[in-house]
Amino acid sequence: MDNLIQNLRINEWDIQRKTIDSLAKIGPRAVEPLIIALKDQNSAVLRHGAAEALGEIKDPRAVEPLIAAALRDDDYRVTWPVAEALGKIKDPRAVESLIVACSNRSSYVRKAAADALVGMANVPSLNAALKNRDTKMIADAYPYFILKGVAGSEDLLIQSLDEYGTRAMAVSFLNSGSTLLAKAATKWAISNGYQIMGDRSGYSGNPRWGGK
Fold it and tell me: Residue 33: CB partners within 8 Å, gap ≥ 6?
């Protein structure tokens, strides 16, 4: 198993993929070595691979170490697969850290965190935010609310943008596929002296309204 863990240091996609698949087949026995690898501050490539493998194994022992990595690691190449792994495990202990990750500076991490939260189906704190019209919470987790695409929630999202908006939030609104959010984003950007552009590539990591 040690050789497999070391293979995760190799920054080549095919080797990483085969190694992750092999570790996933080993299953629970691989969890502790992978948790140790997840904490290795000398190699982001290793941490990335460890996070992916832990997500494939879905062992609850990995939840707390993954949460710590989500809050601590500054490298989006690590926090992105960490968020995805937490989404695969679907443990409610991860909710708060995933909400924090929804405000990450990387659009890919934000999207992965939102996907993970949506996949949990029931997130009481976020459900309550809509019911209570908590615009701060909605702003903090806006990628989640865009992905959920709840009919009638656009006005609250727009209010959240007006009250707590950032350029990243406006860009996500513009590229969300919602006409209402896109118009609001353009208006907000002009009012706040920003230039924002639509993304035609489809690879920006911006969440789409209702997950479409």
Answer: 1, 2, 5
For residues 99 and 198, membership in a common domain is answered with: no
Distance CA 139, CA 145 (A): 9
Q: Model confidence over 13-57: pLDDT tens digits?
A: 889 889 999 999 999 999 999 999 999 999 999 999 999 999 999
User: Distance between CA 180 and CA 75 in Å, rounded?
Assistant: 33
pTM of the model: 0.90
Examine the domain organization and report whether 97 and 134 are in the same domain.
no
Give residue 149's domain range: 122-212
**CB-CB contact of 45 with 9 (8 Å):** yes
The model's pLDDT over 107-120, given as tens digits with 9 standing for 90+, comes to 999 999 999 999 99
Separation of alpha carbons 112 and 127, rounded Å: 19
Quick one: tokens of 67?
């949460």
